[in-house]
Design brief:
about 350 residues, about 30% helix, nine-stranded mixed β-sheet, alpha/beta
Amino acid sequence: MKKTVIAVIGCGRIAGHAHFPAFAQMDDIIDIKYVCDIIPEKAQAIKEKYPNIKYAIEDYKVALADPEVEAVYVITPNYSHYTITMDALKAGKHVFCEKPITVNYELSCEMAKQAEESGKILNIGVCNRYHKSVEMLEEMNREGKFGKLYHVYCSFRSHRSIPGLGGSFTTKELSGGGVLIDWGIHFFDLILYILGSAQIKTLTCDTYSELAKDMQSYKYKSMWAEDTSDTVNGVNDVEEFVSGYIRTDKAGISFNGAWAQNVGRDEMFIDFLGDKGGARLIYGKKFEFFDGETLTTTYPEYDIPNMYLCESRAFIESVQSGVKNRSHIDNILESAKLLDALYASAEKGTEVTF
């Protein structure tokens, strides 16, 4: 099989923790010609760690100008997704872009339109669609194991863990939002997927930014990306808590999310409630199924493959076949529309109707 030549733009945390370890298991289908980062040392460090990579560069347009490069991974901060992805599509490259698609729905639609006009695959990094637990729950719903799946409740709450306070995570201009766009997108996208391409009807949402109004006095238990924090000169204009309700044509969805809360535990789970059965999914892990007819609880046993490896293999297969898969942008736009509407509801203090 001919290998697909790729370039990877962005060598930060999610790239180093998730994507490059997956790439290391894909030597049979990819060749990484370029790794790129605006901080040259990051790209060079990745190249040294993975010696099969040919070049470490600073300017991503060098890779876009190379006719050998067929596909590009965009693993950069949220605000840059749009520009780099659009440049890559216009250069005739297939693109894998990390979630969220970009900072708002309008620009997301422009990206989808450009992919269609370019005739190229544009996949989004909704990795949970390739998590074994999510795949099993989606199949169970299609097979009627829940009966009528009428409501979903999700909680993505943690104790005092705002990431990179004062840096890009908490600067709306750069991130597009706080816990809702950072964590919520993962939960909502997998829920819409399990429900079966659910369409939004109405929603209401409230957001709060209460615990780090004075960034220098904020106390925390943990902080992802702490090296990007700037509590002296930085910005915190995003939400750390969100709550709301979504009506879809499939089921209702209620939710609470918190980067930080004054409750000393993490509560990361999703409940699926049907008239025949229900399930609780512990986010990123396994689920238990509650049978309403036998009143028994089962704990399915199964292995969980690396979802980043699964989604990357699926992307390369789409690049080679031209067939859109479950993480193609056309299948993710409803999630982007949902995020925009939730923020609009919170800003206006009113329900949003479609």
